[in-house]
Specification:
Oligomer: single chain
Distance between the termini: 55 Å
CATH topology: Lipocalin
CATH superfamily: Autotransporter beta-domain
Strand order of the largest sheet: 1-2-3-5-6-7-8-11-12-15-16-17
CATH class: Mainly Beta
Strand content: over 45%
Radius of gyration: 20 Å
Shape: globular
Number of domains: 1
């Protein structure tokens, strides 16, 4: 069957977890240490790979069965910390590149297809309002962390590849914004975190010649990490996301999601300022597609 039939598959969500260190892919992210206490003037450059497989996309309004997708994703990420009103602040920029292949059963016929290209760029600006002052390297060594309260604004920039006549796309052809609040606390060797945010979306006016709107998506996530003396750490991760119903030309469908994911993260230093991070996560409960697993590996280099 010709690959063009792949274009009729729904594409409400960009493949999630393209890069697990700091890339935010709408509500489904699992990101430990977003509000961690670090010195100012710190630079972090990272490169990562993520493999995903499973039922990432499903639209109950279409006769689609057994949707599966395999996605190979590469990404680069840059973080810079600085002081703002004597508070620790940071800016993060991430850009992924995706190789995606999928298949589905539509009206009892098997169809396949693929997509390749850049995904939407993510930019996060965050500031720790309490418990994390702007400290340089020498001051930071003497500081004892207690409870941190921070806020962020994540922006999804529509840089991803998009076809106006197809529903399956890497890019979303719209802007999205997520205000977020987070709290974290260190307990000896254990670091606990919790974040809550809401994604708001602009309209996509080039969705198969129609106007696609999406209602806000609410997200909560929590992390608990154990740190060893050599800075190696292991963590447990979970999140919950709800909402996101889509409206096409004023007509709402039954695409609202109510999903819960769990995962684990392992990070180890390999040299001064260098580390490797691995993460695995899978759907624990899903009411509307997004039943997939993801594996990631990230190399990170930090310097002043």
């Amino acid at each position: 069957m010709p690959k063009r039939y792949f274009s009729v598959l729904p594409r409400k969500y960009l493949c999630t977890a393209l890069f697990l260190i700091n890339i935010i892919s709408y509500s489904q992210d699992l990101e430990p240490r977003v509000y961690a206490n670090v010195p100012i003037k710190l630079n972090v450059v990272a490169a990562g790979y993520v493999f995903m497989s499973g039922n990432v996309l499903t639209d109950p309004s279409l006769p689609i069965k057994d949707f599966t997708l395999q996605s190979n994703n590469l990404a680069v990420n840059y973080i810079r910390t600085f002081g703002l009103a004597n508070k620790l602040a940071r800016i993060q920029v991430a850009l992924p590149f995706t190789f995606m292949d999928g298949s589905a059963t539509i009206s009892d016929q098997l169809v396949t297809g693929s997509r390749t290209g850049f995904a939407d760029m993510k930019v996060r600006f965050g500031i720790n309002l309490l418990g994390s002052p702007a400290l340089d390297k020498s001051e930071f060594r003497k500081f004892e962390q207690k409870t941190i309260l921070g806020v962020s604004l994540v922006t999804s920039v529509p840089t991803g590849r998009y076809y106006e006549d197809k529903q399956v796309n890497i890019g979303t052809n719209r802007w999205a914004f997520k205000p977020e609040i987070g709290v974290s606390k260190r307990f000896a060797h254990v670091y606990a975190e919790a974040y809550g945010g809401i994604w708001f979306y602009t309209d996509n006016n080039d969705y198969l010649g129609k106007k696609l709107e999406q209602k806000p998506t609410y997200s909560l996530q929590a992390h608990a990490s154990y740190y060893f003396k050599n800075q190696m750490w292991i963590g447990a991760n979970t999140n919950w996301f709800f909402g996101g119903r889509t409206v096409i030309n004023g007509v709402s469908d039954n695409s609202q999601i109510d999903n819960w994911r769990v995962g684990a993260t392992f990070s180890t230093p390999i040299a001064k300022g260098q580390s490797l991070r691995f993460q695995y996560h899978v759907g624990a409960y899903t009411n509307n597609g997004l039943n997939y697993y993801a594996l990631s590996a990230v190399y990170q280099y930090s310097f002043f």
